Amino acid sequence: MILIGGMPTLVQPARHFDRTDLRILDAMRDLAAANGTKVTIDQVTASAEVSRATIFRRFGSRDSLFDQMFQREVRLGIDAIVARAASVSSPVDRAVELIVATFEVCVSHPVIRFLAVNEPANLVHFGTSGEPSPLEVVRRTFADMIRLALAERPESRVRGVLPADTIADVLVHMIAGYTMVPNNGTEPQFPEHLRAASAEVARRLLAVD
């Protein structure tokens, strides 16, 4: 477990990427946002302005490049989510912000959005692959933050509240479900009503007035 901004997360440090690696990964991300897993190496070479040999030498294969791009986007997303939550002083508000920010990232990320609409089976594969998988990272991070939030409250205020692991599991499935069946496949922004609704759900699960 790693601490980011004083908050626990299970995200493992990325391998070192140099400028050329990042140019290739960014090209794959941008192309995947419009083409999903059907991006070709020739498209990446043209966009990143590198040779096929450079890509294969650095990433091994097209599938490996896509996997590493997706894992990097997961790491960047979780770093941003944890940083947002860490800026909130109250553990309860921090847990709520963590949940809302995760909802926002999952629903708004262009690659996730494309896969949800056009390749849902592949999105499930990427979300559940790895040890721990992206979904498991989010679930465990939620559970840790919820435990911290509940620990600061008087016992009388948390009596009857669901266990942290159960709340985390409910939230992960709720976010995954909304991500897989988006309200609008063309709207790139996170709607204000969804932000408010996710915060309300989080507060109700935490029994916050």
String of helices and strands: EEHHHHHHHHHHH
Kindly report the average pLDDT value. Answer: 82
CATH architecture of the domain at 62-205: Orthogonal Bundle
Distance between the termini: 31 Å
CATH class of the domain at 62-205: Mainly Alpha
Q: What structural class do you assign from the helix and strand content?
A: mainly alpha
Overall geometric form: elongated
CATH superfamily of the domain at 62-205: Tetracycline Repressor, domain 2
Binned, the helix content reads over 70%
As residue ranges, the low-confidence spans are 1-11
Which topology of the domain at 62-205 does CATH recognise? Tetracycline Repressor, domain 2
Helix run count: 11
The beta-strand count equals: 2
Residues in β-strands, percent: under 5%
Strand order of the largest sheet: 1-2
Radius of gyration: 18 Å
Q: Report the major sheet.
A: 2 strands, antiparallel
Key traits:
mainly alpha; 2 strands; 209 residues; Tetracycline Repressor, domain 2; 11 helices; disordered N terminus; two-stranded antiparallel sheet; single chain
Could you please describe the fold and organization of this structure?
The chain is mainly α. It has a domain of 144 residues: Tetracycline Repressor, domain 2 (Orthogonal Bundle), CATH 1.10.357. A two-stranded antiparallel sheet has the order 1-2. The radius of gyration is 18 Å and the shape is elongated.
Briefly summarize what is shown.
This protein has helices at 19-35, 41-48, 52-59, 62-86, 91-108, 110-118, 120-128, 134-151, 155-158, 164-180, 192-205; strands at residues 2-4, 7-9.
